[in-house]
Specification:
By secondary structure, the chain is mostly helical. 40% of the residues lie in helices and 8% in strands. It has 22 helices and twelve strands. The strands form six sheets. The chain has a two-stranded antiparallel ribbon. Strand 4 and strand 5 form a beta hairpin. The longest helix is centred in the first third of the chain and has 26 residues. The two termini are 18 Å apart.
């Protein structure tokens, strides 16, 4: 773990580049000789722990994780492409850097716990800050466990200044790591407040700790424990958490709704002139027609697009609207392709028919995806400009058209992609100022529905899932509300509904690959799948083997620490 030790040397330094405000970038450096003295020091150090989430290799590009599943497609962004093509190794950058970056977050949390515990400050502040650090340590270990399985455990007893040369622990089993995580979350639950004052918005809360613990239980199929934790926050069992679904799904992922009561725990981002403290949503999800000229490394898949139901709840099928669409690429080309000369359209498909088809779908489709011949407010000639999504070669933002950086005829993300320059809030494509939800109420409701279903409580599972479908702006018909196609009568049928609902509700939020793995569906869903574009062209073939359920332990770490063992299939 030589490289890990090297990173650990910088843990203390990075604390002192963090500002107390979660929303702002760090400013001043503070000497460690004068630190760990005041309540503000404790809180500033904790901001450094939170800030590590924005590391691109930790959660800073978590919206790209869906490229690993079937709901998104893409191409290289920090070597993620190597993973879904099966060409990655124990030396691939994303494999190595995720390990290092997440451990760096853990050691930041450890440093806070160890130092704050001996500070002469108010017990209330001390307890809360240590609770926050344990919540974050649990989150980081859970992230490592999800990708690598059992990992070495380093807690606050490790003093980096004295012991960084001796960080040679063997891997603990998954069960031991999980137990450690659950202990941290129990401590966090007992220490954290139900809410913070407005100035401290975004810090971990008791509800966030319950929700994360429920997720840990769910992943381990401890259904009753998961139910208890999720019910705590959904039904306010012992506290009034005040969580509620936000009425407007589309606005939830913009500054308008990002501080709503639906957000249980989110990465805090902020923008504006002189403030570069966001995440690269525009950069990786936006097109060349987006502010800054972006790369659209991640795009919605055809699979995801076709999962959005009709508004009456029936499954969507292109053949019901356009005969032989599914079977013939020639029909797909006639349906979608246009021709233009320097932006002047000389031939267009039946765009009225396409608009009608898309308008008949689950509203979340048009709120999440940019579909052909719809518009999007992009950026051109240093000003906002309405762009049309034309399916044709040679489209260009200078013509008022959306230009796909890869040249693919693919759906594009609307969710998380900024319009214009957000009235001046967006000044850097790598720092889009949208908060990114790691835990929100809709996710918790769907996890509770899953736990109920697995625990033999079908009726309760239906109730929770229907809440998500009945969000005001979504207003999809409830399951078991009359029509045969909405009927759910057994566990298997409900599992299929949860599979569907999590895909469309949580699109681009980074959950899908983990869901497929824990459901045992990753290989059957991903292995050998040929991803195609709107007109049937093959883009690439996915690879997935049993070994891909866990990423390899970085080879450099094994060479340095002979106690580390490699995951199955990676020898």
């Amino acid at each position: 773990m030589n490289n890990l030790k090297y990173i650990f040397l910088f843990v203390g330094i990075s604390f002192f580049t963090s500002c107390y405000d979660l929303d702002l970038a760090p400013y001043d450096q503070i000497s460690s000789a004068t630190f760990w003295k005041t309540e503000d020091h404790a809180k500033q150090a904790m901001m450094g722990v939170y800030r590590k989430m924005k590391d691109h290799n930790v959660y800073g590009t978590a919206f790209m994780f869906d490229n690993l599943g079937e709901t998104a497609i893409g191409y290289d962004a920090q070597s993620l492409e190597n993973a879904f093509l099966g060409t990655y190794t124990d030396r691939t950058a994303i494999v190595v850097n995720k390990w290092r970056g997440t451990y760096d977050g853990i050691q930041k949390a450890n440093t806070v716990i160890r130092n704050v515990s001996t500070m002469e400050i108010s017990e209330e502040v001390k307890t809360q800050v240590i609770g926050e650090a344990k919540f974050m340590r649990a989150l980081y270990y859970f992230h490592l466990m999800d990708f690598y399985g059992g990992v070495p455990i380093y807690d606050e007893s490790i003093d980096l200044n004295a012991e960084f040369n001796n960080l040679l622990e063997p891997r603990s089993s998954v069960d031991v790591v999980r137990t450690f995580i659950l202990k941290d979350l129990a401590d966090a639950i007992s220490s954290l407040p139900v809410s913070w004052p407005a100035a401290d918005y975004g810090r971990a809360t008791k509800g966030a700790a319950y929700s994360l613990r429920g997720k840990v239980y769910l992943y381990n199929k401890e259904w009753q424990n998961a139910i208890a934790d999720f019910e705590e926050v959904v039904y306010n069992k012992t506290n009034n958490y005040g969580y509620a679904l936000y009425d407007d799904y589309a606005a939830l992922f913009t500054p308008t709704g990002q501080r709503s009561s639906e957000m249980i725990f989110a990465i805090q981002n902020k923008g504006g002139v002189g403030i570069d403290n966001g995440m690269p949503f525009a950069h990786y999800l936006g097109t060349r027609s987006t502010f800054g000229g972006c790369w659209n490394n991640g795009m919605p898949s055809i699979t995801l697009a076709d999962m959005y139901e009709l508004k009456d709840g029936r499954k969507f099928n292109w053949n019901d609207f356009i005969p032989e669409f599914n079977e013939k690429n020639d029909v797909k080309r006639i349906t979608f392709m246009a021709e233009h000369t320097s932006g002047n359209l000389t031939s267009i498909p039946d765009t009225a028919l396409l608009a009608s088809i898309y308008e008949q779908r689950d509203p979340r489709m048009m709120e999440t995806l940019i579909v052909p011949y719809s518009t999007y407010v992009g950026w051109n000639a240093n000003q906002p400009r309405e762009m049309l999504f034309v399916v044709a070669p040679g489209t260009n933002e200078n013509f008022g058209q959306i230009r796909n950086n890869k040249g693919w005829y693919a759906y594009l993300w609307r969710k998380f992609v900024p319009e214009g320059n957000m009235d001046g809030e967006l000044t850097d494509r790598a720092h889009t100022p949208f908060n990114f939800p790691l835990i929100r109420l809709a996710d918790v409701l769907l996890m509770l529905a899953e736990a109920y279903n697995e625990n033999g409580q079908l009726d309760k599972a239906v109730i929770e899932l229907n809440k998500v479908r009945q969000r005001s702006s979504t207003n999809m018909p409830e399951l078991n509300s009359g029509p045969e196609w909405l009927s759910v009568s057994n566990k298997g049928e409900m599992s299929a509904r949860i599979f569907q609902e999590r895909a469309v509700e949580l699109a681009a939020e980074g959950h899908r690959f983990s869901d497929l793995k824990r459901w045992g569906l990753a290989q059957s869903t991903l292995s050998g799948v040929i991803e195609k574009d709107l007109i049937g062209n093959s883009l690439y073939t996915r690879s997935f083997q049993n070994r891909d359920l866990l990423w390899p332990i970085p080879g450099q770490e094994i060479e340095t620490n002979e106690l580390l063992t490699q995951n199955p299939g990676w020898f």
